[in-house]
């Protein structure tokens, strides 16, 4: 009785204890369990007492192991471990983690007959510990992710790095991300922990078919929780990877901009944890911020690049304008300068060469070499294709817009080509204008020159006639002045001849300037004789002896009707500049070879006043180079000179007697012989 | 002294001046001859009739050189080249006769410059 009372009292004490207390007999049956033990298991005491502890209250997976430890304990083979943990299974099938404190019970003979165990339910503590452990892993992952976010500038590397970090720390089983463009097309994916299983998802995403979780996540800002993907995401090829795991999916957003979504595989026991979800959301926000920063940076780089290209373009045009402004720059030099400035306007100046083909001419940079990496633009002048502007890269470079060339470079070469076309067009117009101006300037100077000589000569003629007439009037009744009267009369007659010759020569010079002359074989003797007749008739009051001394009987030269003027003017000068009472002129004719050409040579030797040595030097200089108003070539010799330039003949003057100009002159003319 | 490249005008000057009572002591065909001739004269001419446009050396250049020899040399220009008048006068030419001119005016001008009454019979050396 007392014993029973003591037992009941002891049991009451044990029922008050806050821990599970159980006595397991050697046959594994429960002989005692307290009230707390029954509460934990969810059974009445009667349901537990007498039942095999291991078969009924230990999870199947642990049963054998725990049984074998118990048997060895009962056999005294091992000492009881003071503390150990193992789970029990409740009536509802839930596992509870119990921290056991064991001792063995012996009978009076010292034989072990049971174990007395007190167990503390540490399930919640364990869960908290696991959560802390998991969150630590997650925080480590987040720290790594944040480091990556601050340093990584490549979107691709960033997303891959994030996925790797989230899984490498073992905080998450797998991680994957899909990145969208502004039109919500998937432009990039990254994953870790999925391997080849992810490939089908990539294919479907590229087709624009989003996963159900992705679609949902994109419509909400909060984290999407999928507790049992294995059961709920049957149409997703990844669902099999989620055995016993949950999934968290969140959209990556910053402000209005949605970049895509991030999906994680997570231990199911923490998926509903608010801290976990908050951390996940924060990671997503950080990633979105990083993507936003990269996008901004890319945009900035793009703007900077565009600005640099614009700068290059402006520099090119500035340089072009400087080149164009160079006074009197020739077209060839202008084009070469443009070619030379091209390489530095391109993205790879050191491997750039250029060529301009224009109107059959080629202009190249010094390093020019034709390669397959070329940018071409047509040069048009007044709408007509006149050439090409080509830029070559000497080495292969990555493909951009126009092969390895940027679209800005194409725009630059097109703009330069267009300007070049206009500049050349303008230069050509200017050149034509200059040529026209020069032509008119030459014509004007020539006209002024003729006018000047004509005015001078005509005034001298008038002076001769006027003075002679006045003197004749004075001497008219003075017999003693008969010699002077004769002389003055002769002067007047000569001046009339001279005046008409002057007028004739002016007309001939104009004719030569205005019309093109055609040449033909002309027989020389007939023309020469005609000229001699003219001179003798013109100066009938002068004693003129003109002899022809020819080595040939007949001769033809390349000439025309102007040949007569040529001979007449030479003879006219010989008469005009002669003070002798008897004017003697000898015309020697011979054939000569000069510079592999055959000529007929005419030598007009006279006994006139001669040509001073100083005058000989510039007597036949060209009309434009002659110093105006310095007496040299009169209109007669000017006409001779012009005629000879048409005939491609030659003229020179020598002394009749070498070294003594006062004894007369020798005008030598060479005319091309016609054989 | 006459400096003229045209033979016919030389002849006219000779007839005109001698019949007007002047002696001609020299005739030059161009400026260079004139300068050399002027240098060679022991007795310098009273007046030089100078053409401008002549071969070898023109009238202006010849005037400058003659004036270097004799700064008091009296030169009357007789030229068809009107554009030279200012320059000739600035060099100290006594006058500038533009061809074609009257014989009488030339003679009167010479007399005036030599301080001889017009139509006077007093003879002076010319050139």
Task: Give a description of the structure.
The complex is a heterodimer of chains A (675) and B (127). Chain A is of the alpha+beta class and 675 residues long. Chain A folds into four domains: 120 residues, PAS domain (Beta-Lactamase, 2-Layer Sandwich); 172 residues, GAF domain (Beta-Lactamase), CATH 3.30.450.40; 186 residues, no CATH class; 157 residues, Heat Shock Protein 90 (2-Layer Sandwich), CATH 3.30.565. Chain A is built from 18 helices and 21 strands. A five-stranded antiparallel sheet of chain A has the order 2-1-5-4-3, sandwiched between helices. A five-stranded antiparallel sheet of chain A has the order 7-6-10-9-8, sandwiched between helices. The longest helix of chain A has 69 residues. Chain A starts with a helix and ends with a strand. Chain B is an alpha/beta fold and 127 residues long. Chain B has a single domain, classed as Rossmann fold (3-Layer(aba) Sandwich), CATH 3.40.50. Helices cover 41% and strands 16% of the residues of chain B. Chain B has five helices and seven strands. In chain B, the strands form two sheets. Chain B has a five-stranded parallel sheet with strand order 3-1-4-5-6. In chain B, strands 2-7 form a two-stranded parallel ribbon. In chain B, helix 2 runs parallel beside helix 3. The longest helix of chain B is centred in the N-terminal third of the chain and has 13 residues. The termini of chain B are close together. About 5% of the residues of chain B have low confidence. At the A-B interface, helix 13 and helix 14 of A face helix 1 of B.
Summarize the structure.
The complex is a heterodimer of chains A (675) and B (127). Chain A contains 18 helices and 21 strands.
User: Can you identify the CATH class of chain B?
Assistant: Alpha Beta
**Largest sheet descriptor of chain A:** 5 strands, antiparallel
Task: Give the second-level CATH assignment, the architecture of chain B.
Answer: 3-Layer(aba) Sandwich
Query: Beta-strand percentage of chain B?
Result: 15-25%
Helix content of chain B: 40-55%
Pair with the most extensive interface?
A-B, 35 and 30 residues
Number of helices of chain B: 5
Strand ordering within the main sheet of chain A: 2-1-5-4-3
Record field, number of beta strands of chain B: 7
Going by helix content, strand content and strand pairing, the class of chain B is alpha/beta
At the fourth CATH level, what is the homologous superfamily of chain B? Response regulator
Rg for CA atoms of chain B:
13 Å
- Which secondary-structure class do the elements of chain A indicate? alpha+beta
The shape of chain B is globular
| CATH topology label of chain B | Rossmann fold
- Report strand % of chain A: 15-25%
Mean pLDDT of chain B: 90
Q: Roughly how many Å apart are the termini of chain B?
A: 3 Å
**Total count of domains of chain B:** 1
SSE succession of chain B: EHEEHEHEHEHE
Q: Percent range for helical residues of chain A?
A: 40-55%
């Amino acid at each position: 009785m007392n014993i029973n009372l003591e037992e009941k009292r002891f049991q009451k004490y044990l029922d008050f204890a806050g821990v599970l207390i159980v006595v397991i007999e050697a046959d594994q049956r429960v002989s005692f369990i307290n009230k707390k033990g029954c509460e934990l298991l969810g059974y009445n005491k009667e349901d537990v007492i007498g039942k095999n502890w291991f078969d009924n209250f230990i999870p199947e997976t642990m049963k054998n192991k725990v049984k074998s430890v118990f048997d060895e304990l009962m056999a005294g083979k091992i000492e009881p471990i003071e503390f150990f943990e193992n789970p029990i299974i409740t009536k509802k099938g839930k596992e509870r983690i119990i921290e056991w404190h064991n001792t063995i019970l012996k009978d009076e003979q010292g034989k072990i007959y049971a174990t007395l165990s007190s167990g503390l339910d540490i399930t919640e503590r364990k869960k908290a510990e696991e959560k802390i452990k998991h969150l630590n892993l997650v925080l480590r992952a987040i720290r790594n992710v944040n480091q990556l976010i601050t340093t990584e500038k490549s979107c691709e590397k960033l997303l891959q790095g994030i996925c790797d970090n989230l899984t490498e720390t073992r905080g998450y089983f797998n991680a994957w991300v899909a990145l969208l463009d502004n039109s919500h097309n998937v432009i990039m994916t990254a994953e870790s922990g999925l391997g080849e299983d992810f490939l089908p998802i990539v294919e479907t995403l590229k087709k624009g078919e989003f996963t159900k979780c992705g679609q949902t996540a994109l419509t909400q800002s909060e984290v999407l929780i999928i507790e049992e993907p294995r059961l709920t995401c049957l149409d997703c090829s990844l669902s099999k990877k989620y055995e016993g795991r949950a999934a968290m999916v969140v959209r990556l957003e910053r402000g209005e901009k949605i970049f895509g979504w991030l999906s994680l595989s997570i231990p199911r026991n923490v998926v509903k944890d608010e801290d976990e979800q908050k951390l996940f959301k924060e990671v997503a926000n950080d990633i979105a911020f990083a993507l936003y920063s990269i996008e901004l940076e890319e945009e900035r780089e793009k703007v900077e690049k565009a600005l640099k290209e614009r700068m290059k373009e402006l520099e090119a045009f500035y340089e072009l304008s400087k080149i164009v402004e160079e006074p009197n720059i020739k077209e060839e030099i202008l084009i070469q300068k443009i070619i030379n400035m091209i390489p530095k306007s391109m993205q790879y100046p050191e491997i750039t060469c250029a060529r301009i083909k224009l109107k059959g001419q080629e202009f190249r940079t010094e390093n020019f070499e034709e390669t397959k990496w070329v940018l071409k633009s047509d040069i048009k002048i007044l709408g007509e294709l006149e050439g090409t502007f080509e830029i070559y890269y000497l080495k292969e470079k990555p493909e951009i817009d126009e092969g390895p060339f940027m679209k800005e470079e194409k725009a630059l070469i097109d703009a330069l080509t267009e300007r070049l076309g206009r500049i050349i067009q303008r230069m050509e117009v200017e050149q034509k204008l200059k040529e026209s101006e020069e032509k008119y300037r030459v014509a004007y100077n020539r006209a002024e020159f003729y006018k000047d000589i004509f005015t001078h000569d005509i005034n001298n003629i008038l002076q001769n006639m006027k003075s002679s007439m006045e003197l004749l009037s004075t001497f008219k009744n003075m017999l003693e002045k008969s010699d002077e009267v004769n002389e003055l009369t002769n002067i007047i007659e000569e001046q009339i001849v001279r005046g008409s010759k002057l007028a004739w020569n002016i007309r001939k010079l104009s004719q030569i300037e205005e019309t093109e002359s055609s040449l033909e074989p002309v027989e020389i003797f007939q023309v020469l004789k005609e000229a001699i007749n003219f001179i003798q008739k013109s100066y009938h009051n002068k004693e003129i002896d003109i002899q022809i001394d020819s080595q040939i009987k007949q001769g033809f030269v390349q000439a025309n009707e102007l040949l007569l003027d040529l001979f007449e003017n030479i003879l006219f000068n010989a008469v005009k500049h002669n003070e002798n009472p008897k004017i003697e002129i000898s015309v020697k004719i011979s054939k000569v070879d000069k510079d592999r050409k055959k000529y007929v040579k005419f030598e007009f030797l006279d006994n006139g006043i001669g040509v001073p040595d100083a005058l000989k030097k510039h007597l036949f200089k060209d009309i434009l180079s002659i110093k105006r108003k310095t007496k040299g070539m009169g209109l007669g010799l000017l006409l001779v000179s012009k005629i000879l330039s048409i005939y491609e003949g030659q003229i020179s003057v020598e002394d009749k007697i070498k070294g003594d100009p006062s004894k007369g002159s020798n005008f030598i003319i060479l005319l091309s012989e016609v054989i | 002294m006459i400096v003229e490249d045209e033979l016919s005008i030389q002849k006219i000057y000779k007839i005109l001046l001698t019949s007007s009572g002047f002696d001609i002591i020299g005739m030059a065909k161009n400026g260079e001859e004139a300068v050399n001739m002027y240098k060679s004269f022991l007795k310098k001419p009273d007046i030089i009739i100078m053409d401008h446009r002549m071969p070898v050396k023109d009238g202006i250049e010849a005037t400058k050189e003659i004036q270097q020899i004799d700064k008091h040399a009296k030169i009357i220009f007789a030229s068809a080249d009107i554009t030279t008048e200012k320059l000739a006068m600035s060099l100290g030419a006594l006058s500038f006769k533009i061809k074609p001119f009257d014989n009488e005016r030339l003679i009167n001008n010479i007399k005036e410059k030599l301080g001889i009454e017009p139509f006077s019979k007093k003879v002076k050396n010319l050139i």
